Amino acid sequence: MEIMIFGHLTEITRSKSIDAPCAKNIAELRHNLEEMFPGLVGKTFVIAVNNQLETEEYVLSQNDRLALLPPFSGG
Amino acid sequence: MENKKIKNIFHEGPILPTFISDSIAKHATKTDIGGHSIFLGQVRADVIDEKAVVGIEYTAYEEMALQKMHDIREEIFAKYPLNCMHIHHSLGFVPTGELCLFVFTSAPHRKEAIRACEEVVERIKAELPIWGKELFDGDGYQWKVNV
After folding, report:
1. Does B44 reach chain A within 8 Å, measured CB to CB?
2. What is the pLDDT of residues A21-74, one digit of tens each?
3. CB-based contact, B35 to chain A, within 8 Å
4. Cβ pair B36, B113 in contact under 8 A
5. Beta-carbon separation of A72 and B131 below 8 A
6. ipTM value of the model?
7. The pTM is what?
8. Do B143 and A70 make contact, defined as CB atoms within 8 angstroms?
9. C-alpha span between A62 and A65 (Å, rounded)
10. Which CATH number fits domain A2-69: 3.40.50.920, 3.10.20.30, 3.40.50.720, 1.10.10.1760?
11. Inter-chain residue contact B146 with A69, CB threshold 8 Å
């Protein structure tokens, strides 16, 4: 699953886009990402699915557009 | 009625005062407006650990931010009797002292314009996926945190 990365999280992943193993829901995806990038453990971030913030139980599909978002700081 | 098309709010670099004055001038023909409210966000020269901030580099998840801003716009128009609302946010580098956010609401009466403007500003800061990186004089940076 391709995942877009934003803000300071790009310094942990060292890329603005990563490929992660398929996950059935957001909780599993979060777990997989923390195994791939231990620097993410303890960091605050949300996962957007198709431009919406979803709960940890949200069931993922192959074509979902996924993004890792740290706390917002616009304005 | 407000146009339902998703509008672009992003500007590369600072928002210029002349852009703002031109935007105000364009409302002279809308004579049912009785009050405008304008918020201007300016980049502050904070000093952190004796290092001065020289500007902020903004990035965004643009597609999501524009969709979210569209949703907020619809909700604000449903909540307040506004004539119009204009939002502009910088991307890229904005030096200290220059403007990074311009929110402009207009209504037949002042209270609605003021309340809508404040609510839009707060929602932009809390809900739009935009990130600021504060660049220090010389080198180094820190990621901005909204309070």
Report:
1. no
2. 999 999 999 999 999 999 999 999 999 999 999 999 999 998 999 999 999 999
3. no
4. yes
5. yes
6. 0.95
7. 0.95
8. yes
9. 9
10. 3.10.20.30
11. no
